[in-house]
């Protein structure tokens, strides 16, 4: 099964999530953070990639594709309005508007956008964002050092919002809050769609929790107001915090009182499938992994990422009509050639058929002559099969005509087939209670198709109640009757034998 790797990093740590893809589901196997050892100087992409590569090799991953989440602080984002135009022209219009309104945007900058709806004049409103080629090069450098290939580069708030897709199919306006070390992602959603993302700076993680909570609350208020202005007066009515509910009781109580709106805490690992080992030992700060889990879930489900700088929306390539004309002309020419070839081939086929029939006619005489010899052999085989003895039927007959068990018993049974003339001999040896019983048995076994030859009887004192030993030979005639010798008695067959187990006949 395919294993998926997603990662991101900030100034303090590197976060990684690994999943196993089963069909369209992602089973999260591991989620861990790699702290950076030095903070005096920025760590290089090569060093980050080396750290990641060592961790992945320990987990049996040496190469593959990687999903990367990038924060809002590393790119430029604008709300743009475009004039009415066909949908396939929208990517070119968005880039044209972005070149006029973005502060720094070059022709080589990857740019993607998320449609937000239509404007009053029939145009389109979009959320456009671009990332510098230097950032993309750094990310590719990290992947190369780790033995990975960057497959998707997704804006972090959009990836985290994917985790709420199952529970945000309504049209409510809500805000997600995701605390990531010294940063926090704030994203306003309408239904499942992100319409206003922000990344804010928080006091150091070493500051008291109430200080960080108060600073974050202030940023939440400012984001609510800014989003309300951007959305034409529509107000956020629910707050969703990614994290562990058990670690945020004071924050929840304070925010509910201050904001006067619905608030809930969502553990990202509770809305995805996780392995048993990860279920037992989850990360200390689960909210920080929300973007990575959203990336893995979308990738496994084969859902397109809303913002993907490695696969941005582009104008569809124009239709090459010359190719169509070439294909049509070639098809017509090929059709004419095929028709001519079919006519020639039909004539050749008929000539070849006539020649074949003449050869077949000449060869039938030889086949008939050869068939006569084969028919003679088949008749001989049928005659041989008809002369073969069905020993199961003979044993059934012997069992039916044999004296009762208290009068006689079979100790040895030998079946002999006559391979040349058909028929065979059935040699029966055993003990009986008296000679009259042996005589009666001979009479019962004898008929027009069987000759019974007895060897007499002999008393055996050690045999108990059945003290008279006998040996009877039942000759089963072939299709031509018994084979007579000069003495007038049936001849004995060559020994092609099948021996039965000792025991009574009944």
TrEMBL record:
Residues 487-500 have a biased composition (Low complexity). This is Competence protein A. The keyword Transmembrane applies. The keyword Membrane applies. Residues 477-506 are annotated as: Disordered. InterPro entries: FtsA/MreB. Keywords: Membrane, Transmembrane, Transmembrane helix.
């Amino acid at each position: 099964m395919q294993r998926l790797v997603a990662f991101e990093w900030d100034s303090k740590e590197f976060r990684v999530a690994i999943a196993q893809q089963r069909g369209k589901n992602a089973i999260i196997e591991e989620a861990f953070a790699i702290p950076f050892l030095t903070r005096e100087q920025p760590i290089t992409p090569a060093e980050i990639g080396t750290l990641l590569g060592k961790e992945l090799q320990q987990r049996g991953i040496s190469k593959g594709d990687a999903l990367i989440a990038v924060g809002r602080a590393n790119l430029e984002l604008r709300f743009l309005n475009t004039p009415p135009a066909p949908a396939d022209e929208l990517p070119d219009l968005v880039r044209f508007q972005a070149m006029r309104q973005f502060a720094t945007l070059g022709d080589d900058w990857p740019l993607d956008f998320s449609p937000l709806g239509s404007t009053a004049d029939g145009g389109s409103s979009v959320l456009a964002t671009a990332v510098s080629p230097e950032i993309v090069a750094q990310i590719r450098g990290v992947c190369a050092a780790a033995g990975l290939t960057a497959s998707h580069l997704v804006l972090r708030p959009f990836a985290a919002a994917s985790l709420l897709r199952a529970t945000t199919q309504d049209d409510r306006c809500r805000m997600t809050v995701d605390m990531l070390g010294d940063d926090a992602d704030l994203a306003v959603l309408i239904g499942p769609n992100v319409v206003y993302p922000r990344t804010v700076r928080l006091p150091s993680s070493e500051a008291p929790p109430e200080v960080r909570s108060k600073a974050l609350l202030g940023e939440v208020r400012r984001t609510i107001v800014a989003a309300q202005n951007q959305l034409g007066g529509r107000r956020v009515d629910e707050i969703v915090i990614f994290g562990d509910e058990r670690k945020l009781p004071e924050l929840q109580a304070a925010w509910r009182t201050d904001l006067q709106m619905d608030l809930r805490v969502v553990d990202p690992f509770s809305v995805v499938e996780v392995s048993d080992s990860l279920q037992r030992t989850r990360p200390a700060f689960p909210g920080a992994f929300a973007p990575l889990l959203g990336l893995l879930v979308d990738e496994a489900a084969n859902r397109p990422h809303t913002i993907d700088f490695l696969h941005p929306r582009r104008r569809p390539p124009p239709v090459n009509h010359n190719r169509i004309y070439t294909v049509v002309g070639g098809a017509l020419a090929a059709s004419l050639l095929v028709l001519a070839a079919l006519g020639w081939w039909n004539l050749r086929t008929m000539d070849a058929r006539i020649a074949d029939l003449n050869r077949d006619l000449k060869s039938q005489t030889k086949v008939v002559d050869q068939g006569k010899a084969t028919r003679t052999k088949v008749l001989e085989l049928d005659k041989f099969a008809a002369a073969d003895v069905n020993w199961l039927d003979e044993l059934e007959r012997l069992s039916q005509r044999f004296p009762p068990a208290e009068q006689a018993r079979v100790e040895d049974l030998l079946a002999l087939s006559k391979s040349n003339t058909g028929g065979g001999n059935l040699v029966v040896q055993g003990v009986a209670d008296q000679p009259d019983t042996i005589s009666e048995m001979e009479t019962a076994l004898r008929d027009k198709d069987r000759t019974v030859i007895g060897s007499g009887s002999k008393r055996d004192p050690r045999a108990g109640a059945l003290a008279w030993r006998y040996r009877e030979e039942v000759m089963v005639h072939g299709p031509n009757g018994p084979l007579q010798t000069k003495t007038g008695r049936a001849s004995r067959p060559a020994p092609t034998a099948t021996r039965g187990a000792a025991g009574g006949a009944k």
